[in-house]
Amino acid sequence: MTFMEFLNMGGYAAYVWSSVGLTVAVLIINVITARRAVSQELARLRGRYTNEANTGASQ
Amino acid sequence: MWTWFHKLSSPPHFYRLSASLIPWFGWLAAALIISSLYGGLVLAPADYQQGDGFRIIYVHVPSAMLSLFIYMFMATAAAIGMIWRMKLAHAVAVACAPIGASITFLALATGSIWGKPMWGTWWAWDARLTSELILLFLYLGYMGLRSAIDDTNRADRASAILALVGVVNVPIVHYSVTWWNSLHQGSTLMKKGGPALPPDMALPLFGMIIGFMCFFGAVALTRVKREVLVREQNSKWVKDMVTSK
Fold it and tell me: How many domains does the structure of chain B reveal?
């Protein structure tokens, strides 16, 4: 099997590669958004606590 | 057993446990998915009926299975949260919803892409396809309901009820190909008299399914971490942890 044959997927290239590409994209987006949600929340809390410490207020 | 359960339900303990488990699940998922994609796209022979088009199975079946698994996991967590009033369980259920929605979308999209060359249509109002679409709406409805309620405790209860009612759809998706005369083919993995696939086709599929499960473990635990931080933001341990860094 040559590399071109592999890419061609027996004529199904458009279907096979679009579904594989979509899958990889959905998985990666899940990882990125979940990790960003944690770091954004940590940053928000850091801001909140420093702000409270500076003003002396605590809610 | 109960002390273990009690310890697990303590948010600071669960937060630290998640942080140590995430890399294991994550790297295992990456290794399994990459090697199984190689096995499925390169090493496995072409199907005698569908040619190389059958290779979509390696992304479609794992995503379809995971879409149902996540829903059952989410509903179980919501039920535990309702019965034992465990807030951490609600946090787990909340973390599952967006992952479940995206994986259900993936199952529908890859199925549609597979359907075009094999059935000649992107979509049919068939029992399997329609019930899977309802699964997507259940996930989106769960998320929509939560965002419409400001109070976390009320949102937890209302969304848990929605998640539990939606469980009736899960067996419908699963058995739709047996109960109705469906365009969708039957189960490829389990048939009477052993597996329907030869080992070189089946092994990458199993690897992909386990890899998807590990992926879910890693992403769900990451989302639970965020959820615990939001819910526990007024507690001392979160404040100590965040300010000490």
Answer: 1
